[in-house]
């Protein structure tokens, strides 16, 4: 059965998703850019989509997500920088019996990388003389700094480390996304790094998340997708 997808935001990520979707068994039912969503999103605009993916800007995302939830459309959100409004929107999703999945990064590798850095931080927290630092590099057009992924890495690694881990943000060129966690001591260094080579890695993960979200209710993250997929893969 063909799945129908609405893409909200036709920037670089929206175009990458639209390009990859047909090869992954999706019919792109709606492509909505900023001009079309300026006055709100209605169910009719979604053209019968089974699920929507939202990749816009931090300023636009909250209103878009609220409108999609009100329209009864399960929604995958890749926009970052708006999470201060997530608790209120999550409550609305629960009230309406809707479905929402948010992620600061849809790369499957990055979501596993989060667990790797947390483990490393916990082990190195017991070793004397080490300091920790995160460096994230993205293309010059990226709006938020630090990136949502860097903030997530700092949160999960910092919890294991026992204190805040500083972040340095670099915006240059066309870099899709590089995240480094450096543990440095006087005579040695451990350098953990994830490099996204192509923006399609995020599009692929967003489509995996979109398929997973259909038929579910609640508020989820990519950890839920990976955990469930792993269990399903072993049955």
Task: Describe this structure as you would to a colleague.
With 235 residues, the protein is α/β, with parallel strands linked by helices. The protein has helices spanning 12-20, 34-37, 61-70, 86-96, 108-124, 148-161, 200-213, 222-233, and strands spanning 3-8, 26-32, 51-54, 75-77, 99-102, 131-138, 167-171, 177-185, 188-196, 218-220. 39% of the residues lie in helices and 25% in strands. The chain starts with a strand and ends with a helix. The strands form 2 sheets. Strands 2-1-3-4-5-10 form a 6-stranded parallel sheet, sandwiched between helices. It has a 4-stranded mixed sheet with strand order 7-6-8-9, covered by helices on one side. Helix 1 (12-20) packs across helix 7 (200-213) and helix 5 (108-124) packs parallel to helix 6. Strand 3, helix 3 and strand 4 (75-77) form a beta-alpha-beta unit. The protein folds into 2 domains: 3-102 and 200-233, Rossmann fold (3-Layer(aba) Sandwich); 108-196, 2-Layer Sandwich (Dihydrodipicolinate Reductase, domain 2), CATH 3.30.360.10. The model has no long low-confidence stretch (mean pLDDT 93).
Tags for this model:
six-stranded parallel β-sheet; Dihydrodipicolinate Reductase, domain 2; 39% helix; 235 residues; four-stranded mixed β-sheet; Rossmann fold
């Amino acid at each position: 059965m063909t799945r129908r997808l609405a893409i909200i935001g036709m920037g670089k990520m929206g175009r990458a998703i639209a390009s990859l979707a047909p090869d992954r068994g999706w019919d792109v039912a709606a492509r909505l850019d900023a001009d079309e969503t300026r006055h709100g999103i209605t169910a009719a605009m979604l053209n019968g989509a089974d699920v929507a993916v939202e990749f816009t800007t931090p300023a636009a995302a909250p209103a878009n997500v609220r409108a999609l939830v009100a329209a009864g459309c399960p929604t995958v959100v890749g926009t970052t920088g708006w999470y201060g409004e997530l608790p209120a929107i999550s409550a609305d999703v629960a009230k309406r019996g809707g479905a929402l999945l948010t992620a600061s990064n849809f790369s499957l590798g990055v979501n596993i990388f989060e667990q790797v850095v947390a483990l490393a931080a916990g082990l190195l927290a017991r070793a004397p003389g080490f300091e920790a630092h995160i460096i994230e590099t993205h293309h010059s057009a990226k709006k938020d700094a630090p990136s949502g992924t860097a903030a997530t890495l700092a949160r999960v690694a910092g919890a294991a480390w026992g204190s805040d881990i500083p972040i340095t943000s670099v915006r240059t060129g066309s870099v899709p996304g590089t995240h480094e966690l450096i543990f440095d001591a006087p005579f040695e260094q451990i350098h953990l790094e994830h490099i996204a080579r192509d923006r399609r890695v995020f599009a692929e993960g967003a489509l995996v998340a979109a398929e997973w979200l259909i038929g579910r209710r609640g508020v989820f993250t990519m950890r839920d997708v990976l955990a469930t997929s792993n269990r399903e893969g072993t049955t």
